[in-house]
Amino acid sequence: EIVLTQSPATLSLSPGERVTLSCRASQSVSSYLAWYQQKPGQGPRLLIYDASKRATGIPARFSGSGSGTDFTLTISSLEPEDFAVYYCQQRSNWPLTFGGGTKVEIK
Amino acid sequence: QVQLVQSGAEVKEPGASVKVSCKASGYTFTDFWMHWVRQAPGQGFEWMGRINPNSGGTNFAQKFQGRVTLTRDTSMSTAYMELSSLKTDDTAVYYCARGITPGDGNTFDLWGQGAMVTVSS
Predict the structure, then answer these.
(1) Under an 8 A CB cutoff, do A98 and B111 touch?
(2) Which residues are CB-neighbours of A15 under 8 A, at least 6 positions away?
């Protein structure tokens, strides 16, 4: 099973700041990595798929990069609605697996 | 609008079974894989399995093989997940999630609201 490790576990930031979240895979997942956002009491929302493709309706401030084992989700300028938990997920190998999440909280 | 609406919360005793439904609307149900993913309280996500609503074909995580059954009713545009031999650590929110196309359908572009299943004696 491919293990996805996200870092850091928590980030404390202010609106307007640039955010970089990391997801590292225990073996190569090529570009088959997605990022999701989850807010309390809600199901996740797809942000990025195949490492760098923005999902429908996702603002341009969200971008993804990476391939192989190291991936990054960047939010260019934090909006108040972006404070949430972010998860990565791989579809390269069975079973599909998720990272443990990074919480972006208000400083 | 395009959405997945799941059944409500359930409380079950250890050893029992639970069946959660997921009704799709706003799109052609048979065109997209349907996945089931769970999230234990305060934890991350765990993929359980998927069903092809067109063919009924399924794939499962090995951990759940033999204990989870995925079915669908195409006339009702509804998918079902039944988990048997429940244990206390099956307590979680269970989500259905649509698999994105094009591709292998293993990225999730639409999620249900979740169904809380509590296993307690």
Answers:
(1) no
(2) A78, A79, A80, A106
| Per-residue three-class SS string for chain A | CCCEEEECCEEEECCCCCEEEEEEECCCCCCCEEEEEECCCCCCEEEEECCCEECCCCCCCEEEEEECCEEEEEECCCCHHHCCEEEEEECCCCCCEECCCEEEEEC
pLDDT in tens, chain A (107 residues): 999 999 999 999 999 999 999 999 999 999 999 999 999 888 999 999 999 999 999 999 999 999 999 999 999 999 999 999 999 999 999 999 999 999 999 98
Substitution target in B68, B108, B109 with the highest count of A β-carbons within 10 Å is: B108
Q: Which of A45, A89, A96 to mutate to probe the B interface, most B CBs <10 Å?
A: A96
Q: List chain B residues with CB under 8 Å of A87.
A: 44-45
Reported as a single tens digit per residue, the pLDDT across B26-69 is 999 999 999 999 999 988 899 999 999 999 999 999 999 999 99
Q: Is B104–A99 a contact, with Cβ atoms under 8 angstroms apart?
A: no
Cα(A18)–Cα(A14) distance, rounded to whole angstroms? 9
Q: What is the token pair recorded at B50? A: 């998927």
Rg (CA), chain A: 13
